[in-house]
Amino acid sequence: MFNLFIGSVKIPFSQVIEILLHGESAKPSWTFIVLHSRIPQAITAMLCGASLAAAGLMLQTAFRNSLAGPDILGINGGAGLGVALVMLLFGGNLSAGQFTIGGSLSIIIGALAGAMLVMALILLLSNKLRSSVMLLIAGIMISYLTSSAITLLNFFSTAEGVHSYTMWGMGNFGGVTGEQLPFFTLITILGLTIALLMIKPLNALLLGEHYAQNLGINIMRTRTLLLLSTGVLVATTTAFCGPISFIGLAVPHLARLVLGTNNHKNLMPVTILTGIIIALLCNLISSLPSDKGLIPLNAITPFIGAPVILYVLLKGNTHR
Q1: CA 47 to chain centre
Q2: Residue 77 has pLDDT above 90, yes or no
Q3: Among residues 80, 75, 169, which one has the least CA distance to residue 120?
Q4: Whether residue 291 has pLDDT greater than 70
Q5: Structure confidence at residue 67 (pLDDT)
Q6: H helices within the chain, ranges in order?
């Protein structure tokens, strides 16, 4: 509710209620802001927070490392490289014959293509590398390669291109329009459904892969579903909202602190709910009245996530 009532434009509370109940207000611009900006932005924040938090929990369990996050497999890097190619190499437009796609749609296509390409590579490697640790290292190497390519593209690009890419990299929950919201919602809910269906295999993986196999868990199938779910969630959120830092890394630890358990039957739903709350809080802070517009999300999330990670490091609980 705070996300609907508070924003960079001051709208009286009574007028917001009037818009929500009857779809109209004293000023048409207020109606447009609430219905076409604040509501889609709040829903996007909820879905992004849930997606990144669930992805982070699955990766931390699968790799038995509390410092594993959604960007650890290079999926974020792949999305960033796709956007960099669109913005810095192709000038923001994708052309195929007589058809040209520009604007935000070309950025979304580039991010999804880059993320899905890296995810396909990770899935291929998962069939070759039996060890989760080796797969984790492979993901880190892919991140380094994509980062290097992005640096080269920035170096040879124009100042305008670098500025546009930098703005995208700051993160923004306002990147999903009302027309795009149904598609965004469908894809994220699909990924979250897979995550919820993996509660039992994730609980078995807590005790190690050999124990999970003895319980009848198909490790390869579980790993493939885990990577697929994580890839879909991270790729979609990154494509539409930019690379949002720390939510996927820190939120699972906040949920563990609240529950005091690693049982995914309770931990997964609470992690998703905590991700929603944290994302809405960050969106509210970024939308506070300011002369310079929205505050970048990636300037806010570290203030919430970094203390949590420092606490985990001080406890010395980076491996399970």
Answers
A1: 9
A2: no
A3: 75
A4: no
A5: 76
A6: 2-5, 13-22, 28-33, 39-62, 75-84, 103-128, 132-156, 159-169, 181-197, 199-205, 209-214, 219-241, 247-259, 264-286, 301-315
b/e burial code for range 256-282 (CB count within 10 A of at least 16 → b) = beeeeebebeebbebbbbbbbebbbbb
Cα angle 313, 314, 316 (rounded to 5 degrees) comes to 65
Chain-centroid distance of CA 273 in Å reads 15
The answer to whether residues 125 and 135 touch, using CB atoms and an 8 Å cutoff, is yes
Sign of CA dihedral 68, 278, 297, 240: positive
Q: Measure the CA dihedral 172/306/78/50, to 10°.
A: -60
Q: How far apart are CA 255 and CA 269, in angstroms?
A: 9
**Sign of the dihedral through C-alpha 119, 122, 126, 131:** negative
CA 147 to chain centroid? 18
DSSP one-letter string for 210-228: HHHHHTT--HHHHHHHHHH
Distance in angstroms (rounded) separating the CA atoms of residues 256 and 174: 30
CA atoms of 269 and 239, how far apart (whole Å): 24
